[in-house]
Amino acid sequence: MSLYSAYPAARARQMVADAVALAAVILIVIAATTVTATIRAFARLGRDLESAGQSFADGLADAGDRLGAVPLIGDGIRAPLDAAAGAGTAVADAGRGQQQLVEAIALGAGWAVALGPLLILALVWLRPRVRFARRSTLLRRMLAAGLSADTLAARAIATQPLTRLVAVHPDPAAAWRSGDAVVVRSLAALELRRAGIPLSALP
């Protein structure tokens, strides 16, 4: 696959664009990771709640087990302790829920920060680069299979901007129809340059 143009100026622009795009991807990933980590820090409150609630519940449950073994009064003492332990468990559950919520928000924010810029980058940089690579590779194969300068000249007349066409000849279509070899080759060169292929590739 042909990733870069054979023309120095175009190749330099492509390399600069690739370097800028790579740097942009790195910055986007760093920004998304930073946002995610910043939001995740708020989960500390949930961890503290979970730890405190679980410790409270475990302590009361242990005390209930011990006091519950006291003859005659054990069951009466244990009931309120078990109820209080249940409240501690509820606090621990709330802490876990808070952590899950923070994690979901952190991941959502991280993806939101990353996806928008990455989508723009894909449209502005990646799509044109892929199109260039496909066009260049396909045209090289067609040239190897015997594609002529005349066909490329016809395509140039159909697709190239008028300003480029009249720079080759005041009436490029008429010159092409008359078989002007210099004009035909110059028109074909426009298509080759767009695909990043040197004129020497023509048979």
Structural write-up:
Helices cover 83% and strands 0% of the residues. The protein has 7 helices and no strands. The chain has helices spanning 8-40, 43-68, 74-144, 149-159, 162-168, 172-177, 181-194. The protein is rod-shaped. The two termini are 21 Å apart.
Short recap of the structure:
The chain is mostly helical.
Question: Unreliable segments (pLDDT under 50, ≥5 consecutive)?
Answer: none
Major sheet: size, sense and barrel closure? none
Secondary structure category = mainly alpha
Helix content: over 70%
Mean pLDDT across the residues is 84
Beta strand count = 0
Please give the alpha-carbon distance between the first and last residues.
Answer: 21 Å
- Element pattern in H and E: HHHHHHH
- Based on CA inertia axes, which overall geometry fits? rod-shaped
Distinctive features:
203 residues; mainly alpha; 2 domains; 0% strand
Task: Give the arrangement of secondary structure elements.
Layout (H helix, E strand, L loop, with lengths): L7 H33 L2 H26 L5 H71 L4 H11 L2 H7 L3 H6 L3 H14 L9
